[in-house]
Amino acid sequence: MVSHSELRKLFCSADAVCFDVDSTVIREEGIDELAKFCGVEDAVSEMTRRAMGGAVPFKAALTERLALIQPSREQVQRLLAEHPPHLTPGIRELVSRLQERNVQVFLISGGFRSIVEHVASKLNIPSTNVFANRLKFYFNGEYAGFDETQPTAESGGKGKVIKFLKEKFHFKKIVMIGDGATDMEACPPADVFIGFGGNVIRQQVKDNAEWYITDFVELLRELEE
């Protein structure tokens, strides 16, 4: 067990911070919003709940949900235009404070790149720092599946991305922040995991995270001290 003061030191001296997106950086679950927009909300949100609880392998859950939603390119674009995701209070300030300190900020999501890049642009995070799943479309814009080669399409995918970041950029200390079981599993290789319950509390994460917060102000305060 690492003491809380050591965890805080690690966070303040990290050279990279990785955030989950759905229910962490934004208030919604992107796939549920897409399902709602496409008229299959109830069936899909039940599947999301089972996947987040770790009951179903991630790729199987993703395949199953997307087969139900069948989102077209036009529907994804309309969702972003008509119902853009809402940033979680405090995230904009936290990301910009980290960037001021020359900390690299990454978004690692089991959600969709088109939605996550939209969020990244609002936070001045370059798209090269985004790791997420890519939807595929036929030439007429209809849904054609997703890119199954992305690490984020697999269970344990977030850990694979963090391992890749350490190898590529030689980061000494990486912090992972997120609300779900898939985020907690990414530590190790992440050096610190901070559970976030500001939008939704997942009991398994709350019970097992060494550091659990419900407001990004708590992390901003650590950086100010």
TrEMBL record:
<comment type="similarity">
    <text>Belongs to the HAD-like hydrolase superfamily. SerB family.</text>
</comment>
<keyword id="KW-0718">Serine biosynthesis</keyword>
<dbReference type="GO" id="GO:0036424">
    <property type="term" value="F:L-phosphoserine phosphatase activity"/>
</dbReference>
<keyword id="KW-0378">Hydrolase</keyword>
<dbReference type="InterPro" id="IPR036412">
    <property type="entry name" value="HAD-like_sf"/>
</dbReference>
<dbReference type="Pfam" id="PF00702">
    <property type="entry name" value="Hydrolase"/>
</dbReference>
<dbReference type="InterPro" id="IPR050582">
    <property type="entry name" value="HAD-like_SerB"/>
</dbReference>
<keyword id="KW-0028">Amino-acid biosynthesis</keyword>
<dbReference type="GO" id="GO:0005737">
    <property type="term" value="C:cytoplasm"/>
</dbReference>
<keyword id="KW-0479">Metal-binding</keyword>
<dbReference type="GO" id="GO:0001701">
    <property type="term" value="P:in utero embryonic development"/>
</dbReference>
<dbReference type="GO" id="GO:0006564">
    <property type="term" value="P:L-serine biosynthetic process"/>
</dbReference>
<dbReference type="GO" id="GO:0000287">
    <property type="term" value="F:magnesium ion binding"/>
</dbReference>
<dbReference type="InterPro" id="IPR023214">
    <property type="entry name" value="HAD_sf"/>
</dbReference>
<feature type="active site" description="Nucleophile">
    <location>
        <position position="20"/>
    </location>
</feature>
<comment type="function">
    <text>Catalyzes the last irreversible step in the biosynthesis of L-serine from carbohydrates, the dephosphorylation of O-phospho-L-serine to L-serine. L-serine can then be used in protein synthesis, to produce other amino acids, in nucleotide metabolism or in glutathione synthesis, or can be racemized to D-serine, a neuromodulator. May also act on O-phospho-D-serine.</text>
</comment>
<dbReference type="GO" id="GO:0042803">
    <property type="term" value="F:protein homodimerization activity"/>
</dbReference>
<dbReference type="InterPro" id="IPR004469">
    <property type="entry name" value="PSP"/>
</dbReference>
<comment type="pathway">
    <text>Amino-acid biosynthesis; L-serine biosynthesis; L-serine from 3-phospho-D-glycerate: step 3/3.</text>
</comment>
<feature type="active site" description="Proton donor">
    <location>
        <position position="22"/>
    </location>
</feature>
<keyword id="KW-0460">Magnesium</keyword>
<protein>
    <recommendedName>
        <fullName>Phosphoserine phosphatase</fullName>
        <ecNumber>3.1.3.3</ecNumber>
    </recommendedName>
</protein>
